[in-house]
Amino acid sequence: MKSRILAALALFWVLWGPAPTPAQTQGTASPQLAAVIKLENLLADKHTARVEVGEGVTLELAASQGMMRQNLTILAEGRPLKQLEGGRFIACARLAAGPATYWAISEFTGGAHCCGRFAFLARAATGQPVRYLGQTRGYNGGPRDFPGSFHYRQGQLYFEAYDNRFDYFHASHAECLLVNAPQYYYHLTPVSLRVDNTPFKDVYLNEVAAVEQKINRQAALQDVKSEAILRKTSQAGFERLEFADLLGQLLVKRTILYLYAREDQQAWDAFNRDVARYYRASAWAPELRQEILQLMRKRPY
Which pLDDT does position 67 carry in this prediction? Predict the structure, then answer.
């Protein structure tokens, strides 16, 4: 009974531990939005809708398969620019950044564990053409609100989303501590949209410090060491092995944050040290390292 109570307390602290302080999030000031236009209820009682979103840009929505399947046509100065086939389009934000104007369109793709996604347009200056820049990768849940999503770093504009590549990583979705972890930043220019997390190193290192505290609390609660960081299940194959405890997930989360901060040596030194400290054997640790690296190499970070 004691072990069950301690496990419940541990899960509470892991999931609801202290939020970052203002000092931990400094330097990510949010640019002011010119407007946010709601889209999600425009097709509530009709099959098509049209809305002006500023500076000659118009969005035309059409129902495809009910409320959750919609098509969106983007027009600039009355001319079609891009058609998106998606889930449900939620909102469009317009942002002025110096002479440039940006539009961001949020979408919920639908599905049990999916996906918030964003499309971007830009105009370099008044009189210049509007460009379609592309879409972000989806992450778990509906799209976040626009206030607080845009940041300035080193004089450049960024949009914050989340990296969800580690969802289901040796755990069910409900038990996974790596869902939407960590933050993921897109660098916006009037002609491009690309992932660039390097200016946010301090954000990742601040999160490392917060995870370190959770590791220490969790380790103090576990009076018996698990045999290894992963445990066997009834299903065969390495990919089917599950974390033996919450501590293992926290060690991996800290490793990912270090990798995002480009502190690779520190990432693996800390991982190897704590696997040796908190588990009776180092089994599966080398395989976990290889799997983490493979996932990180699949797309930019």
Answer: 63
Coil, helix or strand at residue 90: strand
Q: Is residue 12 part of a domain?
A: no
- For 131, the token pair is 């460009």
CB 278 within 8 A of CB 285: no
Do the Cβ atoms of 226 and 152 come closer than 8 Å? no
> Is the C-alpha dihedral spanning 267, 273, 278, 280 positive or negative?
positive
Distance CA 111, CA 262 (A): 33
**Residue 122 and residue 212 in one domain:** no
Task: Please give the Cα distance from 193 to 264 (Å, whole number).
Answer: 26
- Number of domains, the chain: 2
The encoded tokens of residue 187 equal 């660098």
In a domain, 197, yes or no: no
**Are 286 and 210 found together in one domain?**
yes
Report yes or no: 139 and 149 within 8 Å, Cβ to Cβ: no
Number of Cβ within 10 Å of residue 67's Cβ equals 14
**Whole-prediction pTM value?**
0.87
Q: In sequence order, what E strands does 12-145 have? A: 33-38, 48-52, 57-63, 70-76, 79-86, 88-97, 100-108, 116-123, 130-135
The answer to whether residues 132 and 50 belong to one domain is: yes
Residue 13 has pLDDT above 60, yes or no: no
Quote the CA–CA distance of 70 and 119 in Å, as a whole number.
Answer: 14
Pair (143, 207) in one structural domain: no
Residue with tokens 């200056």: 125
Domain boundary among 155, 186, 220: 155
Give dist(CA 250, CA 67) in Å, integer.
39
Chain position carrying tokens 């109570």: 5
> Averaged over 105-110, what is the pLDDT?
94
Question: Does 208 share its domain with 132?
Answer: no
Domain hosting 143: range is 31-155
Confidence of residue 237 (pLDDT cuts 50, 70, 90): confident
